[in-house]
UniProtKB/TrEMBL annotation:
It holds the Pfam family RNase_T. This is 3'-5' exonuclease. GO terms for molecular function: 3'-5' exonuclease activity; nucleic acid binding. Residues 25-197 form the Exonuclease domain. GO terms for biological process: DNA replication proofreading. The keyword Transmembrane does not apply.
Length: 232
């Protein structure tokens, strides 16, 4: 799979084909970080759920803080509830990533805006730690939705998808990696329902798909909003 950033507003993904969508096991994951620029920032939390046959099995939840070598800005501490004091007690990335890879197994990885943020941040930190990146196929719900809705020109954010599918999110706190994974899982199930209704059981992006990127917040409010913008 290849992701190419075409501009500040668009990216293109190609080289991905996943069949048997309805029968797959999925590992939906989300990251919290010190900021939104994956070239400069670091992971502070990994959260994930497994979805098998439409449900979360027993033991199907994963969450761990990750010690960051970079201090968390105060506004992001406030936004996520993850503090620099928490970082002092958190395990390092290699330990948490090994646990996450074992949790995911051979499931298809699923993200929201991960083609723009999560995957690149993971790749960077794997490289820094001398670890191989997991070889699981990765689906971004933004791309999966855009593939069947080329007529929609909006940025397919988490809130957009929650509203589009009328998904109840009041019971789940935001800006927590595990909780956000639960919401992404609900979105995934609704998208899978729509694929099934359309008679589709395959995601074929081998010919390429152009997707609108999330918009970075204005500089004046970036410190407050950027930790959660990757789910935009």
């Amino acid at each position: 799979m290849n992701v190419t950033f075409l501009s500040s507003e668009l990216y293109r993904v190609d080289g991905l084909r996943i069949s048997g969508l309805q029968d797959r096991a999925y590992c939906v994951f989300d990251l919290e970080g010190t900021g939104i620029d994956y070239t400069k920032e670091y992971i502070t939390q990994i959260g994930a759920i497994r979805i098998e046959r439409g449900t979360i099995p027993e033991g199907g939840r994963f969450s761990s803080l990750v010690r960051s070598p970079k201090p968390i800005p105060p506004a992001i501490e406030l936004l996520t509830g993850i503090t620099n004091a928490d970082m002092a007690r958190a395990p390092g990335f290699p330990e948490v990533y090994a646990d996450f890879v074992r949790f995911a197994g051979d499931a298809v990885l699923v993200t929201q805006a991960g083609y723009e943020y999560d995957i690149h941040l993971l790749q960077k930190q794997c490289g820094m730690s001398g670890l191989p990146m997991a070889g699981n196929p990765v689906i971004d719900t933004k791309a999966m939705f855009t593939h069947i809705h080329p007529e929609i020109d909006a940025v397919v954010s988490t809130d957009f998808l929650l509203n589009y599918y009328s998904i109840d999110a009041d019971d789940v706190p935001r800006h927590d990696a595990l909780s956000d994974s639960v919401l992404i899982g609900r979105i995934l199930l609704r998208i899978l329902d729509e694929y099934r209704e359309r008679g589709l059981d395959e995601l074929d992006l081998t010919r390429g798909l152009t997707v609108r990127r999330f918009r970075l917040p204005p500089l004046a409010t970036a410190d407050t909003d950027q930790a959660g913008a990757a789910n935009g």
